[in-house]
Amino acid sequence: MSGKDDSAQKTEDPTPRRIREQREKGQVPRSRELGSFAVTGASVLGLLLAGAGMLRALTEDLRAALRFDADDLQRANLGLELGRGLAEGLTWMLPLLIATIIGAIVGTLGVGGWNFSTKAWVPDFSRLNPLEGFKRMVSWQGLSELLKGLAKFGLLGALLCAVLWTSRDEILALGRMSWPTATGFGARVILLTLALLTLGLLVIALIDAPFQMWQYRERLKMSLHEVREELKDSEGRPEVKQQIRAQQQALSRRRLREAVPQADVVITNPRHYAVALRYEADSMAAPVLLAKGTGPEAALIRELATEHQIPLVEAPPLARALYRHVAETAAVPAALYLAVAQVLSYVYQLRQLAEAPPQASLATPTPPSPDVPEDWRWDPAD
Questions:
Q1: Are residues 228 and 254 located together in one domain of the fold?
Q2: Which pTM does this prediction carry?
């Protein structure tokens, strides 16, 4: 029963993997209201910066267009005049167009950032299903979009009505004004209206952008069951990991069984760490670490050393230093030469004692206490 509840209740925040997968599908948070504010604000800014020049250019173009003679009415000249008028119009409209384009790009990327996904190009025929469309209309998201649209319409409509009502006398008197006065007043009214609409859109965008981000994360929330399944997929199934671990352990044991019998000595911690060393004075410039291990591997190294009658020497600081700083099949560093030489000297003395005739009176060598440099010492408990 609890498993069903976990799978039904999406209470967990989306994981980075889920967010990444949704972005690959083209699903990112977007705020259309932020885009509307950015486009309108950029247009107002463009008008403030270049509006006077645009108005003068428009006036001159209208005057030039209204002055014509018989030659201008010739069919061959009509096309040229039309093209010239369009080119001049685009020229003085260019700053406003550039500002609007920049605003559209910034407003679109303001929430969700840049995202390119080819999967979003794949047609989704489920959107053509009328039943699914009706479900979206009556869903919480559809209701929120309806309420947001009504609120935006009411706020912007109230601002527009306020501007028109406060300027009603001047608007009604436009017909009696001179052309410069009328155009100046009209430009001021348009700028004031756009500025107030921009402020209204800013208020709406400040509410809508965080709401869209919250709604996006709520839509991507996961159940505990989904989180567990994703964790299993990302880290590997337990049974697969167990098989891999078993194979790695088998390879490690095989490697140790091949390397340890060739060693001259095994240095131990005595139980937690073990390293196997080999040194041939004729062919090696320095002793070589053949194998090392900790835990079960260290136990196997000690077992193999006993089986093949390889001396075991307890030297915890040296064993830990070799395990920490020297890789397998690598030569012992010069800083540890003296400590390793003390161990090898002890091993050679044991070998001479074992090979000596029974009547020889050789003293049993004393196990060494090799001195490891302070900066080479390592204790995992530290």
A1: no
A2: 0.48
